[in-house]
Automatic annotation (TrEMBL), chain A:
InterPro entries: MrpF/PhaF-like. One of its GO terms (cellular component) is plasma membrane. It comes from Ancylobacter rudongensis. Pfam families: MrpF_PhaF. This is Multisubunit potassium/proton antiporter, PhaF subunit (TC 2.A.63.1.1).
Automatic annotation (TrEMBL), chain B:
Keywords: Membrane, Transmembrane, Transmembrane helix. Pfam families: PhaG_MnhG_YufB (PF03334). The lineage of its organism: Bacteria, Pseudomonadati, Pseudomonadota, Alphaproteobacteria, Hyphomicrobiales. The keyword Transport does not apply. This is Multicomponent K+:H+ antiporter subunit G. The chain crosses the membrane at residues 6-35, 47-67, 73-94. It comes from the Bacteria. It comes from Ancylobacter vacuolatus.
From TrEMBL, chain C:
The chain crosses the membrane at residues 7-24, 30-50, 108-126. It is a multi-pass membrane protein. Belongs to the CPA3 antiporters (TC 2.A.63) subunit E family. It comes from the Bacteria. Keywords: Cell membrane, Membrane, Transmembrane, Transmembrane helix. Its main location: membrane. The keyword rRNA-binding does not apply. It is found in: Cell membrane. Pfam families: MNHE. This is Multicomponent K+:H+ antiporter subunit E.
Amino acid sequence: MSVAILGWSITLAQVLLTLAMACAVLRFMRGPRAQDRIIGLDTFYVNAMLLLVTLGIRSGATLYFEAALVIGLLGFVGTVALAKFLMRGEVIE
Amino acid sequence: MSAPDLPLWAAILVSFFLVAGALVTLLGSIGLWRLPDFYARLHAPSLGATLGTGLILVASMICFSVLQGRPLVHEVLIGLFVTITTPVTLMLLASASLYRDRVEGNDAAPKKDPPPTEL
Amino acid sequence: MTRLKRVLPYPLLFLALLGMWLLMTQSLSAGQILLGAVIAFGGCWTMVALDPPAGRLRRPGAMARLAGRVFLDVFRSNLAVGSIILGSEDRRTHAGFMSLRLDLTSPYGLAVLAIILTCTPGTQWVRYDPSRRVLMLHVLDLVDDRHWVRTIKERYESLLMEIFE
């Protein structure tokens, strides 16, 4: 019983998070300006991180926690570099 | 449908937090799609990054604490990390976009800062 | 006290780094505590090389009150912004920029205020001008800008000034 409840709600959460990622990708493709694309990419990263945490709950392994942390870190560094690039036209000053 | 075998109360609690967090995150991403201009869209991702992340992490904490029979709160690290980094990216994007709009001279951003509101 | 400061320049940072290490490794064994202490010690001395501006933290009671308020406001503003997103076209076009004068000057206080304002959906920190002490914000639901000024000054700024100044 409890396995069924948890299994179905994890599936539901995964579907919802995938839809959220799809919205972020749509914004990324639509633009219209570079900053809109970057914010889409940033949201995509955060949603992917949450999807990994959800996957971790399904598998019951704490391994996914590290993966989620790394994805969050990559998303942060990537977005900061892109925002910096928008401001000045170069990443490292 | 594989899932960890939790007691019923924990399964219901974890399911609730998980689905609520995913819904809030989806709402934020829908906002990214529906809101009319860039500066309004800046408000949308912080839904997923605050409440959405918080709820999903609480679900994960309950799940692993019950599974392993001891309090396991390492998800706090993800929460802390996201709370500190999201404002940095959003502030950088806001100021970069303001700078670009002003250099191009389009009317997405005001030409001058609005005067401070006095009470 | 001064001797402790000479060996360990930032005791709070030391504890925070050690706590983070133990959370990351998910264990409380003596070896991990020792390794974490060494890393935290190195982190503290790296901080000395970076030479951050001096600041101080006071009044744990005020900190707890601030944390409670922020928690509540994040919850409420999530609901408010959610209803705006799902609402009609008319409700989504009230966004706008506004400015306000801040009395808070401590850089750490300003950093915490920036995190609070950006993390609560609905308000977005855009720019702070330290010479005029004016903060520019973008607000999603800008119907009454005085309401926002009052909220920020009364709910957050007064507590932040108690804590950091």
